[in-house]
Amino acid sequence: MLVRGAVLTVVLLGLVVFSVLLAKVTLTPSPASEDLVTSNLRPGRSLRQYAEDYTFLAACKQAGGNLLLGVPFGLLLPFFVPRRLRMIRMTLLTAVVMAVVELIQGALVTGRAFDIDDVILNTAGALLGYFVLGRRITHRYYMYADVPGPSERPTEPEPEPKRTPRPTARTKPARAKPAATKAASAKSAATKGTSTKGTRTKPAGTKGTRTKPAGTKGTGTKKPRSLLDRVRTSIRGR
To answer: Helix, strand, coil shares of the chain as percentages rounded to 5?
Structure first.
């Protein structure tokens, strides 16, 4: 946490110093070039003029100065720009700042004029500084900043003590019939069913156990005296 704050403080101080230098370089009046400088709203017009009318050293000084003027933007702004679309946001912010500076030059400072090519060169210098060094520095900074320090690391929660379950009220179990009584009742029910179903008692006089009256045919008991009496009576009648 302390290192992160120190880095941001140094970057902020560097940005302030660069802003002062930028204002001193771009907003300083130049009365000697008041009649020579004109506003330029066509991209590439000043660059063509550097190549045709200026010497090589003068052209390099003019174009190279504008490039170097935008390099600190690519080194310092990424620390204050969100990670998502960082390069695009840094480029747009640099272009807006330099466009405002050029407008102030053309409107308020003598011997200065608005030049769209200066804005393009400053923005290209910011991209150059970002790709050469700014991207690596900010990447390492954010990797280090994402690692939590000893005081920021979450402490593991202490394990809760195991709770012993409280004894519940004992419930009286339902009394079950003994197995012997169950078996006996089942056996008696089975015997009742078999006795009533298989051995039915037949009434007297039904088929199978018919009782014949005495003196009827088929009994097997003959009385000889009664027959002799009948013969005698039949002879007497004749």
So the answer is: 65, 0, 35
Helices 116-129, 45-53: axis angle to 10 degrees equals 90
pLDDT at 96: 94
CA dihedral 83, 88, 94, 97 (to 10 degrees): -90
Amino acid occupying residue 224:
P
Least Cα distance to 113 among 68, 52, 64, 49 occurs for: 49
Whether residue 123 contacts residue 94, with contact meaning beta carbons closer than 8 Å, is answered with yes
Give the integer Cα–Cα distance in Å for 102 and 40.
11
pTM of the model: 0.59
Tell me the longest C-alpha to C-alpha distance in the chain: 201
Mean pLDDT by 10 residues, the chain (238 residues): 80 88 85 80 90 88 91 90 87 93 88 91 94 89 64 52 59 51 55 48 46 46 61 71
115 in helix, strand or coil?
strand
Find all residues with CB under 8 Å of 209, minimum gap 6, and list them: 202
* Secondary structure letter of residue 130 according to DSSP: I
